[in-house]
Design a protein that fits this description.
Layout lengths: L1 H18 L26 H7 L3 H11 L4 E10 L8 E14 L2 H14 L2 E7 L7 E7 L4 H7 L10 H12 L4 E7 L2 E6 L6 H11 L1 H5 L5 H11 L1 E5 L2
Antiparallel strand pairs: 1-2, 2-4, 3-4, 5-6, 6-7
Helix pairs in contact: 3-4, 7-9
Length: 240
């Protein structure tokens, strides 16, 4: 009787033993690398170079110094809808300049700012990536630093500040310490002093009131912000 059941029992034991070992699935492997695919950036075409009307030698110079090919830069233009009462806004993109991706952003802006301004162009940092990937430097038409804020639609909705209000605040600061805007995005800007403020602590205090996020998530105190302004000869404003 025992020999009669031994075969099936042994078979069951073998099957159970084999079925307990499950093949490892990809999700269980902790050592597999994570692959991130970044979209390839669109290069400025020959047609767009002509459409811009910028001197071709200027575009070539920026490309050479940046070590990167130019890409189209689009401004978002808002216009009232023709439907109903025109209350709805329609956004469209307009080719307004060109950009390059570079790890030499600060040096590039410093080297070309005066030269391009004399020709009726502005160069500025339109995207800061803090060394993780190259920054984006952009060239547009313009004579005033404030044109950068207008084309970037820099504002702080959470603080009820539109572009005009930000420009008005900056103009008031210019009287004490002239500066030029060297970078801007939808909710931030950076500026470099032509002549530093006589009272950096008062300037830092003004920033803390107007753009508190620049203080709270940055230096953390008016004293540290004041020291940073003295050391770098520049300031940042940004809003969450």
């Amino acid at each position: 009787m025992a020999g009669r059941w031994l075969g099936p029992a042994l078979s069951i034991l073998i099957i159970t033993s084999c079925s307990s070992e499950k093949p490892e699935t990809p999700a269980q492997s902790a050592s597999e690398p994570i692959v991130m695919i970044r979209p390839r950036q669109q290069a400025l075409t020959d047609v767009q170079r002509v459409e811009l009307g910028f001197p071709l030698e200027t575009i070539t110079l920026v490309e050479r110094l940046a070590g990167a090919r130019a890409e189209p830069f689009y401004e978002t233009v808002f216009a009232p809808s023709e439907n109903l009462k025109g209350d709805d806004m329609i956004a469209r993109e307009r080719l307004a300049g060109f950009s390059v991706r570079t790890n030499r952003a600060e040096g590039l802006i410093s080297r070309l700012s005066g030269r391009l301004r004399a020709q009726g162009y502005l160069i500025f940092r339109s995207e800061i990536n803090y060394g993780k990937v190259p920054d984006v430097v952009t060239v547009i038409r313009g004579m005033s630093s404030y044109d950068i804020l207008k084309i970037q639609h820099t504002e702080a909705p959470n603080y009820k500040l539109d572009t005009k209000a930000i420009i008005s605040w900056l103009r008031a600061r210019q009287k004490d310490a002239p500066f030029v805007i060297t970078g801007a995005g939808p909710d931030w800007l950076e500026a470099k002093f032509i002549r530093p403020p006589k009272n950096t602590r008062a300037f830092a205090r003004a920033i803390s009131s107007f753009a508190p996020d620049a203080l709270l998530h940055g230096p953390g105190s008016v004293e540290r912000l004041s020291s940073e302004i003295k050391r770098t000869q520049r300031f940042f404003l940004w809003w969450d």
